[in-house]
Amino acid sequence: MLQNFKMKKRILLLEDEKHLLDNLKFNLELEGYLVIPVKDGESAISAFKNEKFDIAILDIMVPLIDGIRVAESIRLMNNKVPILFLSAKSSPEDRVIGLRKGGDDYLTKPFNLEELFIRIKKLISRNVQEQQKSNLIEFSFGSNYINFESYEAFGTNGAFTLTKKEALLLKLLIENKNEVVGRDKILHTVWGYSVYPSTRTIDNFILSFRKYFEIDPGNPIHFKSLRGVGYKFIE
User: Is residue 72 in some structural domain?
Assistant: First the structure.
């Protein structure tokens, strides 16, 4: 029994409406989760500081500190844990703000419980997969070599040292090789939402990668920019 308890995924649940909080806690526990319920933003931040969670589910309009500011605080402590907003604020602008401030998903009230369960499961599963991929230390393609811990690299012009952000972006692209990586995911992983670089800034990183690793930077094989969509590494 103790072993099963330890294996439960932990959820931080911020909701100030008692009836909904109790109902969500009850149903999530039936699904096998361990739920830590809180009713205000200050308690949510305190709980996150003191405990480990696999996902944070946040209402936005809550007392003391709103859910958006809670998400920003969580992102300063941990830029990996999934954040799902549950909110009655349903305008496109509200959704965009929530996602820009660190949210991974946004579900409006009223919602279907089954849909909530599916979204939670997907977010936790995706985070586990990303953590497993984050063990990548070295990578080679063609005659190129990258060490993501020491930032040492070898490219078409010989040995050089990457910056920290170059290494983070390279690692993200390579971990998702042959798939398009969107700007929001790059912001989340490389910049942690602390600043908002322009698309041109990210494009300049891609141009640098082409100079470092492409035989013909003007006709790139490995590093692609897809206007309005994202960026891709092709092995």
Answer: yes
Residue 2 lies in a domain: no
Residue 26, number of CB atoms within 10 A of its CB: 10
Is there a domain that residue 39 lies in?
A: yes
What CATH number should be reported for the domain holding residue 43? 3.40.50.2300
CB within 8 Å of 134: residues ≥ 6 apart: 171, 175
Report the alpha-carbon angle 29-34-35, nearest 5: 80
Confidence of residue 132 (pLDDT cuts 50, 70, 90): low
Rounded Cα distance, 120 and 111, in Å: 13
The CATH number that applies at residue 150 is: 1.10.10.10
Report the candidate in 199, 202, 198, 188 with the shortest Cα–Cα distance to residue 71.
Answer: 188
State pLDDT tens for residues 52-72.
Answer: 898 999 998 999 999 899 998
* DSSP assignment string, 166-199: HHHHHHHHHHTTTS-B-HHHHIIIIITTSS---H
| Peptide bond preceding 217 in cis form (omega within 30 of 0) | no
| Domain around 186 | 138-233
